[in-house]
Specification:
With 366 residues, the chain is α+β, with helices and mostly antiparallel strands. It has helices at 2-31, 51-57, 169-178, 186-190, 216-223, 348-357; strands at residues 33-35, 41-43, 62-71, 77-81, 91-94, 99-107, 114-122, 124-126, 129-131, 136-144, 147-155, 158-166, 181-182, 198-200, 206-208, 227-235, 257-261, 265-271, 281-291, 294-298, 307-316, 320-329, 336-345, 360-361.
Length: 366
């Protein structure tokens, strides 16, 4: 009896695997995918839905993507699921017959802070297709009960067969509550919150309320005598959040910074787009002190207290450094400006190349 049971179990597993492997061909037969002369994917066997069905069965509901499979140019479907986690629209809400809301998250790569946002888009429904512009993004092939099958344009001239499931009202409410920030309205105005909980003291210096920092021994043994290359810099706003875009994007006159610190001096390597090539890379040397996890220098800028924390170290490991960085002084308000910065430790060869490239002494430039 036991042998018969095991034989039946093995047969069931084989049948299950066979059905799974045969699934793409069943989809191909069901919808018969093809591409027109302009490279747009369509189905020769589309069931489609009417405008009335769309208004009744799609609008007013949230939808979550269950699976996605690439449609190749020969009309065949990939046997492996589409892997675009974190990029594609996995959950969405057809709020009205004109407004489409999709939920997504952004993770700041070097802090791990995740931001949950929504983004509204205008759309048009016509002939089973959902348009966000000139080309359709979704072609609804069929809808049965709470499941919808579509062709999805997930990239330029790239199509996939996707299955979407209608959310329950509780699931939709949870997403609306979690993704409460409007990407196009709230983020530019409010910025991105971080786990560091930035604040400003009475002298306008930025600090973190969740600072672990480093002590003097760690500074000497793990930070000194290495070159550090700037990867990213985000301005810290008055409310303690950081701007969404990199500080140097589309900025004229400044450029990314690198630095080297030894036992006596801090050297900054700075590029400036205000000067022609060959004259746009230089350095500045500063005496410094280290206290309270910060490298402090005396600046020549016209500010009330010219002793400033150039780099306040938030986190340090073998390869990376995260810090609050003094960017400069705003011209209109004469206010200190700080940013959240990420640096990567240079190899000795990288440091040597920087030292050979950044040769102009900025302190001598009038």
């Amino acid at each position: 009896m036991k042998k018969i049971f095991l034989a039946l179990l093995a047969l069931a597993v084989m049948v299950g695997c066979s059905d799974n492997l045969d699934w793409p061909s069943k989809i191909e037969q069901k919808y018969n995918f093809a591409f027109d002369a302009e490279g747009v994917c369509y189905s020769k066997n589309i069931e489609g839905i009417t405008h009335a069905e769309f208004a009744e069965k799609v609008v007013g509901y949230g939808w979550k993507m269950l699976s996605g499979f690439v449609i190749f140019e020969n009309g065949q479907v990939s046997k492996e699921e589409l892997q675009l986690d974190g990029i594609y629209i996995s959950k969405c809400y057809f709020e009205t017959e004109k407004i489409f809301k999709h939920f997504h998250s952004h993770t700041m790569s070097f802090t791990g802070d995740r931001l949950y946002v929504y983004r509204n888009k205008d759309y048009v429904f016509d002939d089973s297709k959902i348009y966000f512009g000139d080309d359709y993004t979704y072609l609804i092939l069929s809808i049965k009960e709470d499941t919808m099958e579509c062709i999805w344009l997930y990239g330029r001239d790239r199509y996939a067969f996707v299955t979407m499931k209608r959310m329950t009202q509780e699931e939709l409410n949870a997403h609306l509550q979690k993704h409460s920030l409007d990407y196009d309205v709230d983020i530019p105005a409010l910025g991105r919150p971080t786990s560091y909980d930035f604040r400003f003291n009475s002298e306008g210096e930025c600090y973190s309320q969740n600072l672990n920092g480093i002590d003097a021994n760690t500074f000497v043994n793990e930070l000194q005598n290495s070159g550090w290359k700037q990867l990213e810099l985000y301005k810290i706003m008055d409310n303690g959040n950081v701007e969404f875009a990199n500080y140097w994007d589309d900025r004229i006159g400044g450029g990314s910074r690198h630095f080297y610190v030894d036992g006596t001096a801090l050297t900054q390597y700075i590029s400036s787009s205000a000067y022609p090539p060959g004259e746009d890379k230089g350095y500045c040397n500063y005496d410094y002190t280290f206290e309270d996890s910060a490298i402090r220098i005396n600046t020549t800028m016209n500010i009330e207290n010219n002793n400033i924390p150039m780099y306040r170290i938030l986190k340090l490991n073998v390869d990376y450094l995260i810090c609050i960085e003094f960017i400069g002084v705003s011209g209109d308000e004469n206010k200190k400006v700080f940013g959240l910065a990420a640096y990567k430790r240079m190899t000795p060869e990288e440091l040597e190349k920087v030292q050979q490239t950044y040769t102009r002494n900025w302190s001598e430039v009038e």
